Amino acid sequence: MPKLPEMTKHRGFPSGLPGTGLQFTIRRANPKGVAKLFSKRRTADRPAIEKLADTAFLHAIWRHFGTEPFERGNLDAGRLSWVFGQEIVPAEHPFDPASYQALLRLDEPLARSTHPEAFEDVLTV
């Protein structure tokens, strides 16, 4: 088996949205290579559970990192891509979207306007 890329594991970060198959983290690095981050287009007709997952993910980001830059690490590329380029932005230049070491940060003003519930002390899901 090939050597897996280095990947920070964010201990204490929720693994996903309880009661669904929606994940926030991955368990191990991908042996085929790092999944590239890209901005997914969100539409108004997305299922409510997906919108709730975005809010819960941003709540976890806020509680875990605040507005400080953080390493992508084991955060799920699929979930990140729903908020990447919007509420989550690169925190370094140049930015490598296919690196587990890439630095990201929360765009707090934008996130507060699009997902105000994510900033409540307790988020009920």
Descriptive account of the structure:
There is one protein chain. The protein has 125 residues and is of the alpha+beta class. It has a domain at 53-119. It is built from 3 helices and 3 strands, in the order αβαββα. A 3-stranded antiparallel β-sheet has the order 1-3-2. The longest helix has 18 residues, at 48-65. It is globular.
Return Rg in Å: 14 Å
SS field, number of helical segments: 3
Order of helices and strands: HEHEEH
Look at the helices and sheets and give the structural class. alpha+beta
Helix content: 25-40%
Give the spatial strand order of the biggest sheet. 1-3-2
Distance between the termini: 39 Å
Mean pLDDT score, rounded? 94
- Largest β sheet strand count, sense and barrel closure: 3 strands, antiparallel
Low-confidence stretches: none
Instruction: Give the tally of β-strands.
Output: 3
| Fraction in beta strands | 5-15%
The coarse overall form would be: globular
Question: How would the blueprint of this fold be written?
Answer:
Elements: H1 48-65, E1 70-71, H2 77-83, E2 88-90, E3 103-106, H3 108-114
Antiparallel strand pairs: 1-3, 2-3
